[in-house]
Here is the input.
Amino acid sequence: MSLTQFLRILWARKLLILGTALFCLAGGLTAIMIVPPRWKAQADVYLNLIKPDPVTGEVLGMAARSYVATQVKLISDYTVAGLAVDKLGWLSDPTFIQQYQRRSQSNNIDFRRWLAQIISSQTDAGIPDGSNIMAITYTGSNPEAAKAIVNAVREAYLDVTVSFKRGDANKNADWFAQQAVQLKNELIAAQTAMANFERENDIVMQDDRTDIDSARLTALATQADGAAGGGSLEAQVAGVDAQIRQAQETLGPNHPQLQALRAQRASLASLMSQGATRSSGSSSSSRVAAAKAAVMGNRDKLARMRILQSDVALRQEQYNKAIGREAEFRQQAGIVDAGVTALGAAYVPQTPSYPNKPLIVGGSLGLGLAFGILIALLTELLDRRVRSPEDLTAALGLPVLAVIRLPS
Here is the structure.
């Protein structure tokens, strides 16, 4: 079929095509008059995707796409919709109560979830590419009601987001609190084991992990060196006394460091009672040898004591870290910044979003023309007519020799 034949068929069936188009147009206009208008209210939320967390300092990176998809899904979730129902006060609305009572008996859904489904079915959310602003929309038959509902949905979304963040932080804080209790018990057990070992073996370790015998040996060696070099024992005693007075201002009477200073002072006093410096040098050498022997005899015990002391230090460090993490999550739970911010008030366009009159009129007219052409072609196939020499040639397969035109 050539284009000329096709156009002749359309012209011959023009009334059929025009009638079909007008019929579809009338249907579209009827739909515009019958279908109630619907308005789409919108409320915007800014997602702080690149803003670091005020406590952890973390910034969303590759997970931003997943985060956005989660937020969009959360808008239509029952958690948000149910809270919006509570904010709107629908649970005590007599109109909704009557509608709920007239529902199908096979529908066993509870009243609050039934109302939440009304909101979820008409609520949508989306984020344009390259933007951090999420648009929350609700489509309703009344513009003011749609505006109030979308405002409630946005408020509910903000509250749920804050609640989720606080809940996660409190859960983590509770876990670290349990770990801190366990670590504290282990720390107390390690301190008790070290104290028992000190008491059973008469070993006292100082803060620098030096025992009293080693400190005494160091003091005696210093004294012996001083005596050999002609130093004065009286000056050494005076210096130790000054150290003792200074230590008593900040340390307790039984502190290991203060005990070591007193032991050093006692050693110096014992040397002074020996008489001359020469004889005291000989006595100091013997005392140094005795102290050295005591240290060597307790070498295994000292090694064990240092292991216990290291264990205590490790437990203390672990306990401090657990306490710090718990405090960090407690602080995070108290922060109201959920990473989302409401932007302005909700708004509703002056014209309804549905029905779209230009779209319906244009669509119904175009659809009517398409149906009319289709019906015209089907009619032509069922009732073929010879409208031109080309039709006769196509039908008989013979050439046309002449065309006789009758006078009109």
